[in-house]
Fold these 2 entries.
Entry 1:
Amino acid sequence: MIQITYVEHNGIEHRVDLAIGTTLMDGAKDNMIPGIDADCGGACACATCHVFFDAADKVRVGEPGSQESDMLEVLEERHDSSRLSCQVRVAEALAGLVVKLPASQR
Amino acid sequence: MGKQTGQQLVEKFDHTSPEQMNQPYAMYQAFRSQCPVGRSAQHGGFHVASRYETVKKIFEDYSSFSSTSGVAIPDHPYRMFPIDLDPPLQAKFRRILNRKFTIESVATKQAEIQGAIDHLIDGFIATGKADLAAQLVRPLLPTIVLPLLGAPIESQQQISEWIELMTRGRASDIEGVARAGEAIAGVLMTQIAKRRTMPPIDDVLGMLLDSQIDGKPFTDEDIYRTLLIILFGGLDTTSAVMLESLLYLARHPETRQRLVSGELSWPTAIEEFIRYTSPIQGLRRTVTGDVELEGASLKSGDRILGLHGSANRDESVFPQADQCLLDRAPNPHIAFGAGAHVCLGRNLARLEIEILLKTVLARLGDYRVADDFEPEYLVGEARGMKQLLVDFTPGLKTGQ
Ligand code: HEM
Ligand code: FES
């Protein structure tokens, strides 16, 4: 387990413990955190699980794969650090990470 | 059937055959246990996948299993959006459309749905008998979706009648069905052109007129292709669940009581009705490159039918899968599809089903079906009951 903080668009914070090997999308869904729709259930096919990070965290979170990059093109509000949360696996290296949620997934 | 192997059954499998599809579940069971990815020789040949995990994977893995050559067997030459697209373009359509189909957005239709149901029930409640398919469920659904889309108010009644004609005539009156289809196309295309010149209205058509993909606005044809799947995607499917649930509740009065008393949760029960019905029994994808799937070799360009109807009866995921267990949880069914194309209208369908069932139980509380009633199914894209004849103690119209 590591601790992760999700921050909603309006600043509300949710501090949760996530199991290693799950995804940041699972973590948001399991903890009923609003702001992640995840319509496709984690298939990297809907881009409704978009999150982003502080610039300093970009390296430890890692770069999107090629299919994910294509899906990120779908977003109107895209950040330099944008990822699809279903494609980010929870690992020790992410302990204490702050995950930022966009205003809307639509 | 008992003597044929799964392999032989798959070879003859034809999801458009009324004989096979009236009772398909024993056949699917044989596919899953003996031939999980088989090949049918019908309709020019296609692969058939039947196990839950495999079917789900096919619908999730759009880069290996594409929708762009169509999702039907036999082929449906007319392409619709976003159903016949792959991500990422498909996802761009969905980001626009999803806004009108969220739980919050469809909840604003509650009073309208209730009113439409009450109005239809008022039409027959005094007589003590009805065909709930022809008098309640089928006429209901267009009256909800047409205003949501932005169809012209003055044509909505007429469009509903054309749709009913198409549903009833599908097997017998091919020409009549084609004429009704053209008539609907004419009305919608005219409406799209007219609405471009009018002030914006807050419905699906208005939203499409106001949106762009990659900086390009939609053409009239793009919009028509989109309206059409939203209109037709929700009719036979939703009515299939409504009728299957109504039949089940007629035959299980004790369950009816547990729902009315609140002992059973409505949302949990409705998910189970949807799983149990699985109105879409299967959809096609086209293989984009040579792959192995559960021992079968698929070649680029091959067609494969993923069977939602079979996946949702897979015992390894759903214990007692052939039973309708209204408190089933978890219930990870894929009746609404899986992956990118997961049903756009699922929140609306759930709401419509819930209001309909609650209202029938409240107003036709003692409705019965004949002991010897055997449902017959219309087969096509969706599998749904043709008729549901019931009788009940006559009641009063609303407001009387
Ligand atoms: C119980 C009722 C329903 C069932 C079982 C159902 C089932 C499905 C399934 C299985 C798909 C996936 C198609 C694919 O994978 O290619 C789908 C997609 C779709 N459904 Fe439904 N549906 C229902 C109700 C509705 C309603 C009420 C509407 C609209 C008012 C609707 C509109 C659509 C649309 C537009 C798509 C295409 C989405 C896309 O391609 O991204 N459906 N539905
Ligand atoms: S859940 Fe659909 S892309 Fe992540």
Entry 2:
Amino acid sequence: MACKTEIKEKKRGPLAVIECTEDIPCNPCTTCCAQKAITFEGSINSLPKLDEDKCTGCGICVARCPGMAIFVVDREYSETECLVSFPHEFLPMPQAGEEIVASDRQGKPVCAGTVHRVVRPESFDGTAVVTIKIPKEYADQVRGIRTERGV
Amino acid sequence: MTYQTQVAIIGAGPAGLSAALEVAKQGGKVMVFDENDRAGGQLFKQIHKFFGSGHHGAGVRGIRLGQQLLEQCIQSGVEICLSTVVFGIFPGNELGIVKDGRSHTVKADKILIAAGAGEKPLAFPGWDLPGVMGAGAAQTMVNINRVRPGNRILTIGSGNVGLVVSYQLLQAGASVAGIVEGLPKINGYAVHANKLMRQGVPVYLSHTVIEARGDGQVEEAVIAEVGPGFVPIEGTEQTLSVDTICLAVGLTPSVELPRMAELAMVHLPKMGGYIPLHDSHMRSSNPDIYVAGDVAGIEEASTAMEEGKLAGVSMAEALGLVSAQRARELAGEIEERIGELRIGSHGDARRMAKEEIVRGYEAWLAKQK
Ligand SMILES: Cc1cc2nc3c(=O)[nH]c(=O)nc-3n(C[C@H](O)[C@H](O)[C@H](O)COP(=O)(O)OP(=O)(O)OC[C@H]3O[C@@H](n4cnc5c(N)ncnc54)[C@H](O)[C@@H]3O)c2cc1C
Ligand code: SF4
Ligand code: SF4
């Protein structure tokens, strides 16, 4: 069926999700992105904006953001699963293939998952970008893995 | 013995080192004194990546910024005297220093006080039990001495210091039972708080600590909700099982030396307490003494570095090492960068307070005439 209005299809594949909510003077997210996918309207004090068409989901900004406020989410990794990447600066370092409990923004357990990948090149200066595989429906909820550090 | 230098700087933190570098670049002779056995001030404890823009080393860990600054200073011929306490400033631009148990005198044409800040205490029943400590002290223990102050921590205060230190205690393997904040909102950057919350650390807003209990050591903390005027609300008490209470209730400028030098001061609670009045280029009420960094109002390492540079340029100009025209250009560039740091919901208040200090200085100056 022909459709007159062009509906821009949501880009597939991994995309950055920026959870930076305050106007703090900060900009490594813009300067580190080779695709120039993150910009500021106005001063460096405004909130970063993502151009989804440009973002490749490479995860560099996840490691570089000093606020640890950027994630990469691949909503359609498979029929049933999504991938969530987050910055990680704790020991022990998770290992690919490890079974984990995925947790939300309050550290509360959400679902079971597995570690898909751990990237930690020297240029990330100690920060690892950990990617976990979890059921698709939790893509917007899960932002890390459960540790026993909080309460 | 008596040392002679063009510029003497008290404190090898980001402010002091940045100033030293600026003076050395203009060919001046600089000596920097710091009581610690390492240079960098607060920076050598900051293992986290810093905010800011490219000019301010954003995304770089504080400790590396400190190392970079130190290397540049050494290359530029700055003399850094560590494990050296400056115990006094005396008339005639003389400093009294103690090194290796001996006291010496330093005569300088210009003096910069970049002594940083100290932690504010908070008194409550049981606050003198072992296990109650400043967050800065806890940070020194984990990041410098590699000793965990305890295994289960409660942090009082949700400013950036409380948030950052709590996260670093988690990284050191402790658990954090909570962050207690008297205000109804988080005081520091939301992104710092979110990192802690993702690790399951609860934040108790509109709460305070009312007692620490234990037999010879902290074993429990009693916290309660507060109503108007920070008065604890009866019946809301909760007991948390913790072995360490970290106090992060603010910093106050270290003004012992400015007081001794009888610098004119202003009391500004939002900048941490008493602050030496200074002009827009960091000169205090004594034309030979300058101030920069946290001692001139509690801010951040990024602003401390810029203020240090500004003080460095003004001292170099006053010493005739750089022309007035060139000094104006350099200062203009620095001021532009400082301006970028003092904006936004957290920065605006600091900018206004800094303006108040400069206005105070101008009013003081007008009265002298
Ligand atoms: C937990 C924590 C996290 C922080 N995070 C950040 C951040 O992410 N980004 C940021 O920009 N800033 C941050 N800061 C703030 C930053 O560290 C300070 O604002 C900055 O270090 C101030 O620099 P300064 O040079 O004025 O003082 P300091 O770094 O405190 O240096 C002053 C030095 O002077 C020495 N000294 C004082 N008196 C004497 C004396 N009489 N004789 C000899 N030596 C003396 C002191 O020992 C000290 O070494 C943080 C601070 C803390 C505590
Ligand atoms: S994920 Fe990569 S491409 Fe996307 S915004 Fe971040 S750095 Fe740029
Ligand atoms: S680097 Fe991170 S904290 Fe800084 S502006 Fe970008 S998203 Fe926000």
